[in-house]
Amino acid sequence: MHILNESGAVSARTSVGTRRYIAQRFVQTIIVWFMIITLNFIIFRVMPGDPRQALLGEGIPPELRQAIVERFGLDKSLIEQYFIYLVNLFQGDMGYSFSHFGEPVWKTIFDFRFANTFILMGASMAAAIIIGIVVGVIAAARRDTLIDTGSTVTFLVAYAMPVFWIGLLMLMFFGFQLGIIPLAGTITRGYVHVNFLDYWRDYLWHMTGPWIVLTLSFIGGFYLIMRDSVLDVFTQDYILAARAKGLKERTILFGHAMRNAMLPMVSVVAVNLPYLISGAMITEFVFSWSGLGLLTYHSVLSVDYPVLQGIFLFLASITVFANFLADVLYLYLDPRIRY
Amino acid sequence: MLIYDTLISYDDDLEMIPWLAEAWTVSADGMSVTFTIREGATWHDGTALTPADVKFTFDHHKAAPADANYWSLLQHTTTITVSGQVVTVVFDEPFTFAVDNLGSMHLLPKHIREGVAADAAVWDDATNVTAHIGSGPFKFVSRTPSEFIQMERNDDWWGPDNPYVGQLPNIESLRIDVVLGQDARILAMRSGEADTERYEVFGAYVNSILNAPELQLVTGVVSQWDYVLGFNTTVAPFDDPDVRDAIALGIDRQELINIGRLGFGTPTNSCIPAEFFPAYFDNDGAFPTQDIDAAIDLLNDTYTDGDEDGFFDDLDFDLWVLSWDDISVATGTGIKLQLAKIGIDCNVKVMDDGPMYEGIYAEPRAFIAYEMSHGYSAVPDHVWWRMHSDNIVDWGDNCYGLSDTAVDTHLDDFVGATPATIAAAARQVQLDCLEHKPFIPLFLSDDTHAMRAEWVNFTTPPGGPFTSFNPRAMVFMYDSGLVTEPPTGVDWVLVIGIGAGALIVGVIVTYLFMKKK
Fold first, then answer.
1. By 3-state DSSP, what share of chain B in percent is helix, strand and coil, each rounded to 5?
2. How many CB atoms lie within 10 A of CB B502?
3. Which of A193, B176, B186, B343 could bond A198 through an S-S bridge, CB–CB 3.0 to 4.6 Å?
4. pLDDT tens digits, one per residue of B380-403
């Protein structure tokens, strides 16, 4: 389907140049991704500490040590390990966790931890983005008023406070003293849920604490960028023109200023997308929220290389492809971009 | 030890006691052991537990992949036979701790496990109750990974028939929750959501427990964590036995405990300390107590203080301590202070796990000296691992470079002793450790457990009340019902204080912003 722009020409988004640009970006993305795969392999081999140590404790007979080392292929040369890694990777095999009963890495990551992180981080980021955008626009429109300064100070303070500290305070007051949020976990331990809705009610209740903490910590960034972006847009001629046309302030603000100020937000959101996957290590720890952040933390402590490799690979892949998508999305969102 | 039974267990002195096995014997040559299995025991599904299940367990582990627990030990068995209620295991060489090791294996039901690989995914299936059938005091009910495990009392357990137990567990239902942060765990215990926690309380939190009316602190019990000062005996200055002797004389263990563990520790003066292994300890192998003058005299024979800085020349060294272990780091500081008194300049170097373990255990050993805990099991064969020269392989534990033929022979005698020779063999290895001092035992960290105030009657053997050494703890302990009321409502003074403070700061900052603009 060809989309016509105002002048009646074929839109930039379907032109040959655009297609070539997208193809080039895609090839670049693949190359970067491949480099990441390689780096992901190398980085775990050059960092200090030997994974064999994590597997082998005191009092393990030499033949047992050898058996473990052979089982995980740790006796092979690095080149050999690299090719095994590549072949396995393209077969969807990320290896076996050292510490999770030797289960496949994809299971360790995706069984339930990915969903826990994605839901928590998604909800927190969505709330932070919506609040950040709306308050950011209002603050920009009411520049230098009490609303502007008050919200800037509030969100900066929330942004600057360590999440573990807010988390612990929440556990102390809302969890322990008031008893309105749970102290740990994603579900009530030992409770048998009567149905799916009951499960979700319980799950979301457990998510309240970490959700508030993360939302508070995220808002600041989105708010400041939105506010600055809108302030910048306010200086543009078309805003003046809109005012001259006698449009309502509300229409100018949300119909013209906000829409145009959204462009930088696309990049910011794209850059923040990996958080959806990586999770928030400290918040997940404080609230015992079993997600990928916590898995990363435990894997680092237990030198669980296969799991760490799996997480980092997944994370890097999402980052690379999210940026590619953001670039493509720009073509659609910003008609000024032409190739 | 809760869901699965073992053949033997340990009493409060870590002496072996009958568990599922009513009795055991060791032949005079140490080559064969027998276990007499209790009659009338059943698996959680009601099937009778027989000696054939015990034989199956041994065979199963012997045929398992080479990296399975106990595989190595079982490769040395020649025959495993059943006769009536007696299981006989014959080895191709004597193993001093064969009863301990075989007796510590979790028994598996033949009728469920037979024909299914030991590493099959079904054994880790959280929803499969049949896969988790054991014969222990508690039955598996459900598990949600990373959240909780639910167990209930096994009312058909054989405990009442065992004179060392004599009853069913007082606890009817048991749930193990995953609560990661120490702060959250303390709040969970204070609110009554949890009754106790698995690990000892970190030093910084001891006062939080003592100040919480709903909680009690279980103390006076040694944990399994043994802190030692270890030397690389192949490099200077610790290739000189006099330096090791002098340092042993310069150490005041109780002071180190006060510095490193806030007083919650028990000094140890042997590589097989009486506090953990009373049956094997020999006082002749005890390390000396602090004698600063004697230590200085010893060093004066060889070393001088040419630059007159108060420290002997050529005796300064790096002492590695483990970054995440506050006890290790603080104790390192204590050692530095004590060694300064005998003229040795010790530089405490805080290391992360990876570089520390690699430097200590992997060839070539990069460390000069370290101080951290290893961790005991109920079987004192750790001395073989730590001192025998055959154990110089990657990630071996003989990191000290002690390669002494006589010591090796003594260590082999110790782990291959018969009942008649074990006491003498244990004494000899303690004498060897004292003579060569590849490491200096310092102290056992005490098990400072937090528990709800109303819980009583818990037993406290070495290793702590909640370690796997002691399933009896979970049988005898109970909730007295005398609940200390948790605090109700909010500490409004604190809330208003924090709120008012935040408000004042906010108003001032806002005012300054506005004024500037």
1. 35, 20, 45
2. 11
3. A193
4. 888 988 888 876 554 456 678 888
Beta strands in chain A (DSSP E): none
Q: How confident is the model at residue A1 (pLDDT cuts 50, 70, 90)?
A: very low
- Asked if A49 and B353 come within 8 Å (Cβ–Cβ), the reply is yes
Measure CA B401 to chain center: 24
Task: Report the number of distinct structural domains present in chain A.
Answer: 2
Q: Are residues A73 and A135 in the same domain?
A: no
Q: How confident is the model at residue A317 (pLDDT cuts 50, 70, 90)?
A: confident
Q: Is the dihedral of CA B237, B238, B240, B245 positive or negative?
A: positive
Same domain, A190 and A112: yes
Determine the pLDDT at residue B15: 85
**Are A35 and A165 in a shared domain?**
no
What ipTM was assigned to the predicted interfaces of this complex? 0.78
Q: How far is B435 from chain A (nearest CA, A)?
A: 23
- Contact map slice: A 89-128 vs B, CB within 8 A: 101-103, 111-113
Task: Identify all chain A residues contacting B362, using CB atoms and an 8 Å cutoff.
Answer: 50, 53
Q: A31 with A158, same domain?
A: no
CA–CA dist B222, B461 (Å, integer): 8
Inter-chain CB proximity B179 and A48 less than 8 Å = no
CATH of the domain at A155: 1.10.3720.10
This prediction's pTM: 0.81
CB contact under 8 A, B490 and A178: yes
Element (H, E) at B8: strand B8-10
State pLDDT tens for residues A58-91. 455 666 666 666 766 767 777 888 888 888 887 7
Q: Is the peptide bond before A264 cis (omega within 30 degrees of 0)?
A: no
Res B486: pLDDT: 59
Give the residue-averaged pLDDT of A29-44: 86
User: Is B146's CB within 8 Å of A290's CB?
Assistant: yes
The verdict on a CB contact (< 8 Å) between B381 and A71 is no
Q: Which of A99, A133, A168 is the last residue of a domain?
A: A99
Q: Which of A66, A99, A132 is the last residue of a domain?
A: A99
Answer yes or no: do A267 and A137 share one domain: yes
Q: What is the dihedral of CA A116, A119, A124, A127, to 10 degrees?
A: -170
Structure confidence at residue A235 (pLDDT): 82
pLDDT beneath 50: ranges in chain B: 394-395
Interface test with A, best of B127, B151, B180 (most A CBs within 10 A): B180
**Chain B residues whose beta carbon lies within 8 Å of the beta carbon of residue A290:** 145-147, 178
Cα distance between residue B224 and residue B447, in whole Å: 8
- pLDDT confidence of residue B328: 94
Task: State the count of interchain CB pairs (< 8 A) between A and B.
Answer: 150
Same domain? For A228 and A124 the reply is yes
Q: What range does the domain containing A136 cover?
A: 108-304+311-338
Residue B3: what residue type? I
Distance from CA of A193 to the nearest CA of B (A): 13
Clarify whether residues A70 and A20 are in a common domain: yes
Residue A115 sits in the same domain as residue A20: no
pLDDT at A316: 85
Question: CB-CB: which of A102, A168, A171 is closest to B119?
Answer: A102
**Which residues in chain B are closer than 8 Å to A186, comparing Cβ atoms?**
147
Per-residue pLDDT, A7? 43
Average pLDDT score, chain A: 82
